[in-house]
Amino acid sequence: MTPAARVQTSIELLDRIIAAAQSNGAPADRILAEWFRNSRFAGSKDRRAIRELVYAAIRACGPIPVSGRAAMLRLAQTDGTIGPLLDGSNYGPAPLAEDEAVAEGGIAPAWLVERLEASGIAAEEGQALLARAPLDLRVNTLKAERATLKLPEPAEPTPAPHALRVATGTLVEQWPEFRDGAIEVQDTGSQIACLAVDARPGETVIDLCAGGGGKTLALAAAMDNQGRLIASDTDRGRLSRLAPRAERAGATLIESVLLDPQRELEALGDFVGQADAVLIDAPCSGTGTWRRNPEARWRLDPAQLDRFAQVQDRLLDLAAQLVRPGGRLIYVTCSLLDLEGADRIARFLANHGDWRGENLSLPLGKQRGGGTRLTPGRDNTDGFFVACARLAC
Ligand SMILES: C[S@@+](CC[C@H](N)C(=O)[O-])C[C@H]1O[C@@H](n2cnc3c(N)ncnc32)[C@H](O)[C@@H]1O
Q: E strand or H helix at 149, and its extent?
């Protein structure tokens, strides 16, 4: 493909990504993967260039752009190589017309920027939300140790005890160490959220919103396969991804429990008042993960944020019923908004007099309200809010 054809293809893909964001359709990654699958004429260099152009254009626009071309024109204001390619050549984009729409820049739509600022995320912290995310691994202590593990490419330790950082784009899934379960891909922030659970061998631990089990696997390793580890979720598809991952990781203690939405306690009845710890990795806006999913900024609205907060409150109340006297619950969201972090744990503690907030001592992050917040700017992790509460004995 010519460089101009790559730009035009990126514009067309951006149109699809914008339409999908407006209709709650497929995420950008899936739209790109599908196009690559169906466009055999595009070689690996074309694919890499198109992916980079598309993501750079998404990052360049704050609010949702009116069109892919408007997004590309925005990017052209900072990337001088694009303008000359708007030349009307075969398969290339049409030349620039007078008064063409150029998308607005910025970090996010204005209402969301306001919410972030009110939550203490502005200036450099705001810019960092759109940087490129590093690629972190967790060494699975059921199979290996960070100090002695040999990997095919250089890897640097991060402040999480089992984490290693490798060059972004490294195809770790092809490494024998990945296939053998010695390593998992997991952001350092996510690993630190698991540390907050302080799961011990022999305990009964519930990972209430386990999804595909990213955190469950870290808890299994912390428990050294001893005790009971319940992985529950309402999403059958996500939960079904856990079993093969657990097998690869040698995590043998995990019990998966599919929950019925609104009737979660029916499947978890045996655990009422029994768990030493319940992790609530709650569904949220994902504002802390924009480095990986920058178009997620275009999918949020204020009503949706309020709905997330309601679900988070419900899950906190539900989890509290599962904890034994003296046990703990750990509340986590990958959001930087106080509405989904400090405000939620404050409400929980205000409504449950027999629970106390507990300070966490974590290798990264800074106190925010009744919890610890990790941010892409300060900690170079995904953004997380993590809080711990303990039930009186
Ligand atoms: C942030 S994701 C979890 C990610 C996962 N813990 C990991 O580390 O990979 C939130 C999960 O909550 C689940 N969820 C939503 N509503 C739920 C409910 N009422 N009970 C349990 N899980 C729920 C979603 O299906 C989703 O998998």
A: none
At 123, the pLDDT band (50, 70, 90 cuts) reads confident
Q: Which amino acid is at 385?
A: F
Active-site entry in 61, 194, 334, 388: 334
Nearest CA to ligand 1 atom 27: 211
Model confidence pTM above 0.80: yes
Q: Which atom of ligand 1 is nearest to the CA of 334?
A: 1
Do 237 and 355 reside in the same domain of the chain? yes
**SS3 for 103?**
coil
Residue 16, SS3 per DSSP: helix
Of 72, 80, 136, nearest to 103 (Cα)?
72
CATH number at residue 333: 3.40.50.150
Q: Is the CB of 208 under 6 A from ligand 1?
A: yes
* Ligand 1 lined by 169 (C-beta under 6 Å): no
Q: Would the CB of 245 count as within 6 Å of ligand 1?
A: no
Could you tell me the two tokens for 177?
Answer: 């160490």
Residue numbers of the domain that contains 368: 188-391
Identify whether 209 is a catalytic site residue: no
Please report the pLDDT score of residue 360 as a whole number: 97
